[in-house]
Design a protein that fits this description.
alpha/beta; 3-stranded mixed sheet; 9-stranded mixed sheet; AB hydrolase-1 domain-containing protein; monoacylglycerol lipase activity; short-chain carboxylesterase activity; AB_hydrolase_1
């Protein structure tokens, strides 16, 4: 009789190999060694996305993570079919979506979060979800675009879809947006990530057993991607989606001041001035480089940023502010699974500003570019023209896929004897 090992079985764990020719995981073998013989057996493996998705040529798809995520996105196998007539002009689609898309009715519960330096942001939760959902339900943080908030149609549609799938959803209304209070002489900006960090920390502390995800649109997407890049390996989010991200703010600013885009520029600057005038007393007697009259009566977003934003956040010029606040520079540092969805004809988030090379080289990123869509439009799909944007099912498939993987990983870690995703070698 052979003597037993003094230390007992020694498990050696390693990940199964990946076949680059078949784009699938190779079924591992389970090795069992004893003093007398060696036995081999095939270990079962759960791979929710083993079959490759055939991508329709109407999309531009690239990214270092395409092998990982494309099988989970079946919507991309069908052609992108914009709603007739509306998609004939990118401005028509953009304006139609902004003014005529339905706004789902949902009761929200507001929580005002005081930041460490005295500011405040408003978090809108779905009323009753604390009673309806278990504490480990995944949490989705929504970041609207510039001057946007929880009342915007694209935000509401995503909120409703995620909630119907059992997700806890919270809308992050930045300072002054969505009637969020302004308590200090400082608004939010594309460069400032302090509020984002505090919101994520607050939500994590409240639901410590839940996985957190983020979805951002336009400027909210820019802030989200910059946050992912700065946090990098330490990011608490389990996944994120960026939509209509301007990425390169210098390029976006150049296009913003051309042709019909001036209409959007005037509309957004008017919205910024409206928010500012509600809280103008906070900015009385501000010295230094502040130009309060310019900010209060800005005719363009650039004027508002020059008079107020870039000074508040310590930039010497508007161009320096835009250059240093662009999320295009953050992509290479993103370690969190990230899906970026853009429209090739977006008038506000230019196609030429997308950091394609960095996305292509990052194994955590996937880019989907639709041929049409305008800005925050995407009037296509089963719910067009008045219902949810075409992007919503795609976003949901992506984060649901990540959540399933997270649950599987958690269960595997809790069960070291599981043979689903790891080799086990016993000596």
């Amino acid at each position: 009789m052979m003597a037993k090992s003094l230390v007992g079985p020694i498990p050696i764990l390693f990940r199964p190999p990946y076949s680059h020719t078949t784009n699938s995981l190779i079924t591992p073998l389970h090795f069992s060694f004893s003093a007398r013989h060696v036995t081999f057996s095939a270990a079962p493996m759960s791979t929710p996305a083993t079959a490759a998705t055939t991508i329709h040529p109407s999309f531009e798809i690239l990214g270092g993570a395409h092998h990982r995520f494309l099988p989970a996105l079946p919507h991309l196998s069908r052609p992108y079919r914009p709603f007739p007539l509306l998609a004939a002009n990118r401005h028509l689609e953009t304006i139609f979506a902004a003014f005529f898309r339905s706004i789902p009715d949902v009761r929200l519960r507001r929580e005002c979060l005081r930041t460490h330096e005295g500011g405040a942001v408003a978090l809108d939760w779905v009323a009753g979800d604390d009673r309806r959902l278990p504490p480990d339900s995944p949490v989705l943080i929504l970041l609207p675009g510039l001057t946007g908030g929880s009342e915007d149609s694209y935000v509401r549609h995503m909120l409703i879809r995620a909630r119907s799938n059992g997700w806890r959803v919270v809308v992050f209304n930045s300072r002054g947006c969505g009637d969020s209070p302004v308590t200090t002489p400082q608004f939010y900006s594309a460069s400032f990530l302090g509020d984002m960090r505090e919101v994520v920390s607050h939500v994590t502390a409240r639901y410590p057993n839940a996985n957190l995800y983020g979805v951002g649109w336009s400027l909210g997407a820019n802030i989200l991607v910059r946050y992912l890049g700065q946090e990098s390996h330490n990011c608490p989010l389990s996944g994120a989606v960026s939509l209509c991200n301007p990425f390169n703010l210098v390029v976006a600013d150049e296009d913003f001041r051309k042709g019909f885009n001036i209409i959007y520029d005037k509309a957004l600057s008017k919205a910024l001035c409206k928010i500012f005038k509600k809280h103008a007393l906070l900015f009385e007697d501000m010295g230094g480089e502040y130009n309060i009259p310019m900010a209060a009566n800005a005719k363009s977003v650039r004027e508002f940023d020059d008079g107020l934003t870039r000074v508040s956040f310590g930039f010497k010029s508007v161009d320096e502010y835009y250059s240093n606040s662009s999320s295009s520079d953050s992509i290479k540092h993103v370690k969190t699974p990230l899906l970026c969805i853009q429209a090739a004809n977006d008038p506000i988030a230019p196609n030429r500003g997308i950091p394609r090379e960095d996305i292509k080289e990052n194994p955590n990123c996937l880019l989907v570019v639709t041929p049409k869509g305008g800005h925050l439009g995407w009037v296509a799909g089963d719910e067009a023209p008045l219902g949810a944007p075409w992007t919503d099912p795609l976003v949901m498939d992506f984060i649901q896929h990540l959540e399933r993987d997270a649950i599987t990983a958690r269960e595997t870690n809790c069960n070291p004897g599981s043979k689903e995703a790891l080799y086990h070698l016993e000596v």
